[in-house]
Amino acid sequence: MLPPAEIHNLSMSSPNQPNDKNGWGQLGNYAQLGFMLPAATVVGWLIGTALDRWLHTTWLYILGLFLGIIAGFVELIRTVVKANKGH
Hints:
The chain starts with a helix and ends with a helix. It has helices spanning 4-12, 23-55, 60-85. Helix content is 78%, strand content 0%. It contains 3 helices and no strands. The chain is elongated and about 50 Å long. The longest helix is centred in the middle third of the chain and has 33 residues, at 23-55. With 87 residues, the protein is mostly helical. It has a domain at 31-87.
């Protein structure tokens, strides 16, 4: 019978848990950026366009577009910092 500390270590290295340090985990993290940047830009543009129609203006879509781009780059920086933290 294993001591409790070794049982705990065995459960921590379960193959069902994702490992972000391996190549496939990092590839998945970076591949999500290919969707995150355009999605954040489009969502910002859509919110700005909806506000333009609701408030009867013609410039809020540009503000929404820039905010979406900024949100995409913030997520890019977070992902890169998180990936480099493990090295």
